[in-house]
Design brief:
about 900 residues; 45-stranded parallel sheet; 26-stranded parallel sheet; about 15% helix; disordered N terminus; nucleotide-binding; PbH1
């Protein structure tokens, strides 16, 4: 090196003899220790070997000093501390390196290496500074053995394979590396190799920009990895049963063993600090196997796949790191991977914000997951996730969804602006404390065999605030539900939720709904300002309500449905118009309740006070057994005989073809049962039916009888009828229809689902209507429950064909159509006569003839309702009959004799022709 020693000789080389030597090799042989060989521009065809402290420097001036080997390696460094400056080294043998360094501490400064790789091995510790490398094969730069190389501002372009490979026991210190276009990896570190990479830029690679394998432990700081065709960072290990090593300089990287990365059983530990990974062709960052990866203050943007992907048993930690605009999920974990993210966030992913499955564990602390195309946080399999002080916001699906056997723990987290549920549990389990859910289709929806916990949460401005679906239990404590656009809290069929010390306010629907068979325990709940009922107890529901306060309701504060048996204890109803409304057959129990400021009060307030029909008022310490058991179920009606049901069918007015078809079906099903009992295969049979007929032709009546007949035959467990239409089945937004259809279908299990005007599910000219989703859901449910439910679809004959053609699965399931003919005049007269007999009225011969004339003259347009028209006519006749008697002189005096009494009795039950209204007034 010039200036290395004042006493060292300087030798000059000129290719045309202008120097002291014609070849560089000759000058090297003549040089003493510390000498500098100055080389004039030109091409030197020779193989050089450096093994002493001698420097080779290109002279400044026009032209290039080019070293070209006739064969083999042009430049070999075996030792020494010399310097090679400004030389272009050109390899010609693709199987040999252009520069090979096996020892010493040589410096290559400002050199250009083409046509072959730079290979550093053994115990060499060279420095490459301001060099450019072009290698058609790969790797362009290879560091191996126990070498300790330093690379400063090295540029690798158009590499035919990996740009920089660090392997075996090598340790690299790399600053300012620029990789521009490589067919393989940008940087590959494997084996027990280590390295630090600072201010590097790696772009346009065919494989991963950074690939780390097995027990390598690199550190990257302020690096950019962009525009590759594969992963931005890929960390893998082929070791099995190994434990991930801690990342270098990362002793706080999370749970797991610490210690020497080279210890037995330890694998890759990688640290990236203040790095950018952008526009990768696949995952931005991917870790798989027993590896540990830490990203601090990094940015992962526009990944072609998942933003950060952890698989197998990888351990990944993200500190103050952001992941944005991923083509797939922002963050995904599978296998037994552990991912911890603190600070930063996941934004604008085109799938889920974060997804975990298998037995993966995910921890998000102080993170924001925003604007994902799918669910913000989705858990499946047996995954476990903990979210603390985070934010889940802006998605057309769910804020958080828990499925299968997954478990989610939320603490201090905000969920907002989700079109479906803010939090949806569909089979897994949930613990949520101090969380806030706002502006969601449904605030929180729980479907689980476990008992999810909500503690000190707030649900505001959602569709339904909290929905606990069928057969689900939940524990809800100190939680506030306000501003719901529908029900505040909905407790589904047979649900067993416990609500304690909660508030439900400003609901646009009923505040608290207990659906059929629900058996909750509700204690200390305050309900205020609901637009409908404060508490709506549906048919057959039960449960215990204690120490609740209900006020300012738009409908009666408490509604109790048929056969409902709730116990209402020490509750207060105040500041409302009406406190209680009971359906026929309701059987609530009231204990020590109070009312205050109620205009129309029928709520029993003591054991001795009068109680409305069907209500039991019990004082504290009442007789044992006075309150129904919380687990009591509604008993089924006593079994009906097949003969009685067939007689009821035959007694229907008209419908001769329908009655014949139903009796034929009954006989066929009897045969099916006998063949089954005899061990013979049943004949092909579909119990689902199409009822085609105009309005008022008895379709619902026959459907109800059909279910009872199947129950009597032992083919249905209950035989009850559940009526539905488009409004009951179709949701208002994406993802709402299937749950609504499923909920209605579940009500019909054991009986008949009757869908009136079924063709409304297929509107004319609306191919993307949600009704098609309802039909698809219905077809699947019919297949899954083909022995448990009978479905009858009904509507106008001309439109039912359009319904059947809407889905290929319908035609195979609805193979029989029953045609309901319009009633003729005589049959309509018979319906009026049947109504009169049922209500203990009599029709004289003249009245019957007048009815025949009436119905013969009725215009059968779109307003004509068949049997409904006949029933409406009977009602009008009774009204006109009452008005006629009130205006007559037949009212008895106190001294009326027996003949007058008999005359008035006859007038009270006899309908005359003048009681028939004019045609145009019906």
């Amino acid at each position: 090196m010039i200036g290395r020693s004042s006493g060292a000789a300087a030798l000059r080389v000129g290719a045309r003899g202008w120097g002291g030597h014609r070849t560089i090799g000759a000058a090297l042989r003549a040089a003493g220790p510390g000498a500098t060989v100055s080389v004039q521009p030109g091409t030197y065809t020779e193989n050089l070997t450096l093994e002493r402290d001698i420097s080779v420097v290109a002279e400044q001036g026009a032209g290039t000093v080019r070293l070209v080997a006739p064969r083999g390696t042009p430049l070999t460094v075996l030792g020494g501390a010399g310097e090679v400056r400004g030389i272009t080294v050109q390899g010609t043998d693709p199987d040999q390196p252009a520069v090979a360094v096996t020892g010493g501490t040589a410096v290559l400064d400002g050199c250009e290496i083409t046509g072959g790789r730079v290979e550093v091995t053994g115990t060499a510790a060279p420095t490459l500074r301001d060099c450019r490398v072009h290698a058609a094969g790969g790797p362009a730069v290879r560091l191996s053995g126990d070498s300790r190389a330093t690379l400063e501002r090295v540029t690798v372009t158009d590499a035919g394979g990996t740009a920089l490979l660090v392997e075996h026991g090598a340790d690299a210190t790399v600053t300012g590396l620029a990789v521009n276009t490589a067919a393989g990896h940008g940087v590959q570190v494997r084996g027990p190799a280590t390295g630090t990479f600072t201010d590097c830029e790696i772009t346009r690679t065919g494989a991963a920009a950074l690939a780390v394998e097995d027990d390598a432990r690199p550190v990257l700081r302020s690096c950019r990895l962009t525009d590759g065709s594969a992963q931005g960072v890929l960390v893998t290990s082929s070791a099995t049963g190994a434990t991930p090593a801690p990342a270098p300089d990362d002793t706080d990287a999370g749970s797991g063993p610490e210690g020497d990365a080279g210890a037995s059983g330890h694998t890759a530990g990688v640290l990236l600090h203040d790095c950018e990974i952008a526009r990768s062709g696949a995952a931005g960052v991917q870790a798989a196997g027993p590896v540990r990866l830490t990203l601090r203050s990094c940015r992962v943007d526009e990944s072609g796949g998942v933003g950060v992907l952890a698989a197998q048993n990888a351990v990944v930690r993200l500190d103050a790191t952001t992941v944005g605009d991923s083509a797939d999920s922002g963050l995904a974990a599978g296998g037994t991977a552990q991912v911890e993210m603190r600070g930063g966030g996941l934004a604008r992913s085109r799938a889920n914000g974060a997804f975990a499955t298998d037995e993966a564990q995910l921890t998000l602390v102080d993170c924001a997951v925003t604007d994902s195309a799918f669910t913000a946080l989705h858990l499946a399999g047996s995954a476990r996730a903990t979210v603390r002080d985070g934010e889940l916001r802006g998605t057309p699906q769910h804020g958080a969804r828990v499925t299968e056997r997954a478990l989610l723990t939320l603490t201090g987290t905000r969920v907002e602006a989700t079109e479906l549920s803010g939090i949806a549990v569909d089979g897994g389990d949930l613990t949520a404390r101090r969380c806030r859910v706002t502006d969601a289709g449904t605030g929180i929806s729980l479907t689980s065999a476990h008992r999810p916990l909500l503690d000190n949460c707030e649900i505001a401005d959602c569709g339904t605030g909290l929905e606990v679906t069928a057969d689900t239990g939940a524990l809800v404590a100190d939680t506030r539900v306000r501003g719901s656009r529908s029900a505040g809290v909905f407790l589904g069929e047979r649900s067993t939720a416990w609500l304690d010390s909660c508030e439900i306010t400003d609901s646009k629907g009923s505040a608290l709904v207990l659906w059929n068979g629900a058996r909750p325990r509700v204690s200390g709940v305050r309900i205020a300002r609901s637009a409908k009922n404060g508490v709506y107890v549906a048919d057959g529901a039960a449960g215990l309500l204690t120490d609740c306060d209900v006020s300012a309701t738009g409908f009666p504060a408490l509604y109790i449905g048929k056969d409902a048996k709730p116990v209402v204890r020490r509750c207060v109803v105040r500041d409302t118009d009406e406190d209680l409304k009971l359906a026929d057959g309701a059987e609530p129990v009231f204990e020590e309740c109070r009312v205050d400021g109620v205009k129309d009060s029928t709520l029993p307030v003591s054991a001795t006070g009068p109680a409305p029909t069907g209500v039991r008022a019990v004082a504290a310490g009442g007789a044992p057994g006075s309150a129904p058991a919380l687990g009591a179920e509604v008993t089924e009606a006593a079994a009906e005989s097949l003969e009685d049901l067939l007689a009821e069918l035959r007694s229907l007015i008209g419908l001769e073809r329908v009655k014949q078809d139903v009796e034929t079906l009954v006989k066929l099903m009897q045969l099916v049962r006998r063949r089954t009992e005899a061990g013979l295969p049943p004949p092909p049979l579909s119990r689902h039916l199409v009822f085609a007929g105009n309005a008022g032709t008895g379709k619902t009546t026959v459907a109800r009888l059909y279910g009872r007949l199947l129950a009597a035959l032992g083919l249905l467990t209950r035989g009850h009828l559940v009526e539905a239409d488009r409004g009951a089945l179709v949701g208002e937004y994406v993802g709402h229809t299937a749950p609504k259809t499923t909920a209605v279908f579940r009500q019909a299990v054991g009986g008949v689902l009757f869908i009136d005007e079924a063709y409304a599910l297929v509107p004319h000219g609306q191919g993307n209507d949600f009704g098609l989703e309802a039909i698809s859901t219905l077809v699947k449910l019919m297949e899954d429950h083909r022995e448990d439910v009978v479905v009858i679809v009904a509507g106008y004959p001309d439109d039912m064909g359009r319904f059947i053609d809407a889905n290929p699965g319908l035609a195979s399931r609805f193979t029989r159509t029953l045609l309901f003919d319009d009633y003729d005049a005589d049959e309509l007269v018979g319906i009026v006569a049947q109504q009169a007999e049922h209500h203990r009225y009599e029709l004289g011969e003249a009245t019957t003839e007048a009815l025949g004339t009436y119905f013969a003259g009725v215009e059968r347009d779109d307003r004509f309702g068949n049997g409904r028209t006949a029933r409406q006519l009977f009602q009008r006749m009774t009204e006109r009959h009452a008005a006629r008697l009130a205006d007559s002189s037949l009212l008895l005096s106190a001294t009326a004799d027996e003949a007058d009494v008999e005359a008035e009795t006859a007038s009270l039950v006899t309908l005359l022709p003048e009681d028939i209204p004019p045609l145009q007034t019906l």
